[in-house]
Specification:
Elements lengths: L9 E5 L4 E5 L3 E6 L7 E3 L10 E6 L9 E6 L6 E6 L3 E8 L12 E21 L2 H4 L4 E4 L4 E5 L4 E7 L5 E3 L2 E9 L3 E9 L11 H19 L9 H13 L1 E2 L4 E2 L22 E2 H13 L3 H17 L11 E2 L10 E2 L13 E2 L10 H10 L11 H17 L18 H20 L6 H18 L1 E2 L4 E2 L26 H13 L1 E2 L2 E2 L17 E2 H13 L3 H12 L11 E2 L5 E2 L5 H21 L6
Antiparallel strand pairs: 1-2, 2-3, 3-4, 3-5, 5-9, 6-7, 7-8, 8-9, 9-14, 9-15, 10-11, 11-12, 12-15, 13-14, 16-17, 18-19, 20-21, 22-23, 24-25, 26-27, 27-28
Length: 616
């Protein structure tokens, strides 16, 4: 087992309340319970010695002539298959998390790890080493014969049950096992985590493992069958949609930004953040992507969650909303440094919680109204009272939009008049006006229209650099910013407007490297942090969208096809791409996958239009 495999060498499994990462060598090295944002049970990804892991590997050394591994998803599911090819045989480990019935929050979650041999003979080795509370809390081990073990940690108990020929043995406070299987034979282990007061799991029977597999496969096939996309990149779009679904907390409908915390934007660097929370921005923009694929239930669930945040009243900082919340809407995300963890490949500090939660980022109001405006009629999801809350938000914004803030990238270098923040305030008023008119709702249309137009005039004068012939990151600067690639997508400017095409050309020259896009230049616009970062995959897909809508189809398709080559072996993307093509940052990142969907839809539509075909 290698310490600290590449970030991209993982697949994701989950049950829409929490999730786990499994490396391409069969090591489950990231798992938090009972929720995405709970303390970890396994976190070897952040500290090989202290973090804990659950490994099922085949005998032999990977890559040294002994064992070759391959990993894939069963098509259109979140069921992960890790294959071990040895001189003596071929074995497989099938990993998945059964999906709980309904959408009620639960402390009980299961991970099924099913071993089978398809040719010859394979000897599997199992090591289960939980380390509760990010490796800070001790646990007690109890063995019940050779088929069951119980790890009792603070507030969480992990139960390990074996099925078939697996015999569990104590290894200190951990558990180990070996099992040799011949072709056609199989065995399984079931990991169940429970909370205080939960009943322990019943006996693990072979037939029950098969039933869980069939149910999980049926769930994912049924869900992805609702997808309306039939374009050129079906497999990648389906995988991105499933990833977004996996990262959505079913009891509330709120998606997290990524499955992990603490994975760095530069190996050895300090840009290591906790992304296991719901950003209003990221989640709001995902509504459009999910609706465009036909997943209206998911889009509506998040809108209800967002309306509840408005209903709950102001955030602790005094604003109507804050930039991020826990998946249940809790606004308190205090940040702490976990100094006992060395970080992935010594990338420290490792942070839990997120200190940016109380930043002022005015763009979130635009994204929030953008999300709420995605239904055909406001009354489809919310009633009169909810509309009044939305209208009240816009009335408040009329007095508060013209302020410096920290901006979309959550830089810690001080507040500025960021152009993107003004852009999204324009979106807030524009979409609010449209909704009020379309649905005959009471609104101060004269005020909203005046504010919308004032913002446009301000951006066109102060956010435009005559020197650069481009829209810039913040007023009185000449720094470019890839967040402004959203300008044509939200309708602020036509995709072939001369000012926009000039901006796109400037970005091509400064922010684009071999079709990969940097979000901005930290040297030109210091952000208060040490070190560099890779290209931002979200921005690379937004760049494809902008090229497609600008009519630069050959360039757009080439950039899109190249971006797809940076996906990992099972189609997942982290936040960034490093200088040698490695994935960096938290993984997988929802924002990247929703941007992939948006780019694919736009490029498909423009290619069809250019060929004289109706859009699919």
């Amino acid at each position: 087992m290698r310490p600290y495999p590449p970030i991209a060498e993982h697949g994701l499994i989950g049950d829409m309340q929490t999730c786990a990462l499994v490396s391409s060598e069969g090591v489950l090295d990231w798992f938090c319970a009972p929720r995405f944002d709970s303390p970890s049970v396994f976190a070897a990804l952040l500290d090989h010695e202290r973090g804990g892991y659950f490994a099922i590997t085949a005998e032999g050394a990977p890559g040294e002539g002994g064992v070759t591994t391959r990993q894939l998803y069963l098509a259109d599911t979140a069921i992960l298959l890790t294959r071990f090819l040895t001189p003596e045989g071929v074995g497989e480990v099938v990993d998945f998390m059964p999906v709980p019935e309904g959408s009620t929050a639960t402390d009980r979650h299961e991970v099924v790890r099913y071993m089978r041999v398809v040719r010859g003979t394979v000897r599997f080795t199992l090591r289960c080493r939980p380390r509760f509370d990010y490796g800070r809390a001790p646990h007690a081990l109890t063995l019940d014969g050779a088929c069951a073990a119980r790890f009792e940690g603070p507030g969480v108990t992990a139960h390990l049950q074996s099925v078939g020929a697996v015999r569990l043995l104590a290894d200190g406070r951990d558990v180990a096992a070996t099992v040799t299987l011949d072709a056609g034979q199989n065995a399984a282990v079931l990991l169940t985590v429970t909370g205080p007061g939960d009943e322990p799991p019943g006996p693990a029977e072979p037939a029950a493992m098969v039933e869980r597999f069939v149910a999980a496969r049926g769930f994912w096939h049924g869900w992805i069958g609702r997808c309306t996309y039939r374009g050129r990149w079906q497999q990648m779009v389906n995988r991105s949609a499933i990833t977004l679904k996996l990262l959505t907390y079913a009891p509330s409908g709120a998606p997290v930004a990524a499955a992990t915390m603490g994975l760095p934007e530069q190996e050895g660097g300090e840009r290591n953040w906790d992304y296991r929370y719901t950003w209003v921005r990221d989640a709001s923009l995902s509504v459009r992507a999910m609706r465009d694929l036909g997943f209206t239930d998911e889009a509506d669930a998040f809108r209800r969650w967002l309306q509840q945040r408005l209903h709950d009243g102001g955030a602790p900082g005094g604003e109507p909303l804050q930039i991020m919340y826990r998946v249940d809407g809790d606004p308190y995300l205090s940040e702490e440094v976990l100094g006992h963890l060395e970080g992935w490949r010594r990338s420290a500090p490792v942070r839990a919680g997120n200190g940016a939660a109380d930043q002022l980022q005015l763009d979130i109001y635009g994204e929030a109204v953008y999300a709420l405006a995605q239904s055909g009629r406001t009354s489809d999801v919310v009633g009169y009272d909810a509309w009044k809350r939305s209208a009240g938000l816009l009335d408040w914004l009329g007095d508060h939009w013209d302020r410096p803030d920290e901006g979309i990238w959550e830089t810690r270098g001080g507040r500025k008049d960021f152009t993107y923040s003004r852009l999204m305030c324009w979106v807030a008023f524009d979409r609010g006006i449209r909704q009020a008119v379309a649905n005959a709702r009471p609104a101060d249309l004269a005020r909203w229209t005046a504010e919308r137009d004032a913002i446009m005039e301000q951006i066109m004068t102060r956010g435009w650099s005559a020197q650069r012939r481009a829209f810039v990151q913040h007023y009185d600067s000449t720094v470019l910013d890839a967040s402004l690639l959203l300008m044509p997508l939200v309708g602020f400017i036509a995709p072939k407007d001369p000012r926009w095409l000039s901006t796109l050309d400037a970005m091509d020259a400064e922010l684009v490297s071999d079709s990969l896009v940097y979000r901005y230049d930290p040297q030109a616009s210091p952000d208060g942090l040490q070190g560099a970062e890779g290209t931002f995959s979200l921005c690379s897909f937004l760049y494809v969208h902008a090229l497609a809508r600008a009519g630069r189809l050959e360039q757009a398709r080439y950039a899109f096809d190249k971006m797809l080559t940076y996906a990992n072996h099972v189609g997942l993307f982290a936040e960034e791409i490093g200088p040698t093509g490695e994935q960096l940052g938290n993984f997988p990142q929802a924002f990247t996958h929703l941007a992939l969907i948006t780019a694919a839809l736009a490029l498909d539509a423009e290619l069809d239009r250019a060929a004289g075909r109706p859009p699919g």
